[in-house]
Amino acid sequence: MKATDSDATPQPERVAISPLEPLMALADVEAYLGIKKTAIYQAIKEGRFPAPIQLTPNTRRWRRADVVGWVNALAGAR
Fold it and tell me: Which of 13, 45, 52, 65 would disulfide-bridge 60, Cβ 3.0–4.6 Å?
């Protein structure tokens, strides 16, 4: 029996990531910014910090370019 498009299981949204693009774990983001995870997740909730990419159910990473861009935007706003 041939599967149709309507039978397909919905797939999560895919995020394009270059294989050479550095990704940062939460501990790396904390060390780079000098703030704790509670402040990071609060800023994400408020829309003030980029959300991580969900790689697996238990693995989240941030694009280093997003984190550095966020810092540069803050510095430019001064």
Answer: 52
8 vs 11: CA distance, rounded Å = 9
Question: For 7-37, how does the pLDDT look when each residue is reduced to its tens digit (9 = 90+)?
Answer: 566 655 666 666 678 999 999 999 999 999 9
Q: How far apart are CA 23 and CA 17, in angstroms?
A: 9
Q: Which domain holds residue 43?
A: 21-76
Q: Count of domains in the chain?
A: 1
Do the domain assignments include residue 6?
Answer: no
pTM of this prediction exceeds 0.85? no
User: Would you call 57 exposed, middle or buried from its count of C-beta atoms within 10 A (0-12, 13-18, 19+)?
Assistant: exposed
